[in-house]
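Example record

The entry below shows one chain as it appears in the dataset: sequence first, then structure tokens.
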Amino acid sequence: MLTQREILSTLEMLKNENLDVRTVTLGINLLDCASHNLEKLTNKIRTRITHYADNLVSVCNHVGQKYGIPVVNKRIAVSPIAAVAAAMSSSQMVAVAQVLDGAAAAVDVDFIGGFSSLVEKGIARGDMALLEAIPHALAETQRVCASVNVASTKAGINMDAVLLMGKAIKQAAHLTAKNDGIACAKLCVFANIPQDMPFMAGAYLGLGEADAVINVGVSGPGVVKNAVERALKSNEQLDLGQISELIKKTAYKVTRVGELIGREVADHLNIRFGVVDLSLAPTPNVGDSVGEIFQSLGLLSIGVPGTTAAMALINDAVKKGGAFASSRVGGLSGAFIPVSEDLNISEAVRKGYIGLEKLEAITAVCSVGLDMIALPGDTTAETIAAIMADEMAIGVINNKTTATRLIPVPGKKAGDSAYFGGLLGQSTIIPVNNGNNPNLFVRRGGLIPAPLQSLTN
């Protein structure tokens, strides 16, 4: 275990390499706020959030300044609103979302996740109300994020839910057409969703969690890139096994940094510490790109032959380093490939080095899935659902988390640019095979059964 002094020396060593605590996310249990009365429900939700989160931002800033490492984002994740507000109608669900948005603004956090539903095996009344509310809820709020789990290795794939989400994504894009369909950037559709993930847009507080918990997301793609480049500059003959060991050691140091920050924030707030999610989550900034790591390893660009193998190496090394550093590693902890949020990957799309099919292949070995991908505006709801179903199948069969964050950009076609702003970045719109035609396969609905590997008891 590293001492505090060794951690501080690590921070000093990495201060120019874009190491940061990407997010501290406060999970808040809202289940006992449930009521059949909308006013009572929303008052309880508002009071609970402001009670727990009132000092979150100031404490994060204080701890970040103490150690000289910024906590970039401060966020909240709540219990699945489909369960908390199960008695509400879809229009009332939108009102709940607006209250969540207002509470998040009041405590000055960046995003609030948990406008969520778990429907991998079936859709209850509250779930259906939330699914119907998602487009308007995301279009009419600034900070609210939604996630829907439509598949799991134990349950299979709920194709009825998948098709409903395809339609919801199309409607959300239409409602925010003037901003390139940005509401869709706040919606993740999952297979095997984790209960303790601090990263948006998928974060929510799982049903097995405590009343309140602090989860930390640490991101270090720039750190990994620079570590690899320094090592290869000293010894060009390093093989891939040795590079994997280097990434593992780097991930160990970064995880320890995250746990140090997270535990101190939790102590100040008198809230239980949860997990460190060590995910190589990029930003649109130069030097903070997952895509650049592939070039450091010797590939021309992410997307060329060798990409999937390189991603498997990176993801495995990151997980091993994090698991060795802490017994509280959770969430996703690996490498993200959000296209618009990563300047290098976005550029690879523009140059034609990587497309939808290769991105899907990479998701078999990365942490998440098809993330922040801009699609032509005329892509049908059925085709969007089919893309999601393919991604869910990868997660279900491989017993891993996969997800999609797909954005059909109204009025734009493949090759055009979509602009989302801030950390969401921009991207060239990716062509989709048969994208503007109805897909009869997904219209059949029903449940794709769980695979044989689900029988583990």
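Notes for this example: The first strand starts at residue 20 and ends at 28. The mean pLDDT is 89.
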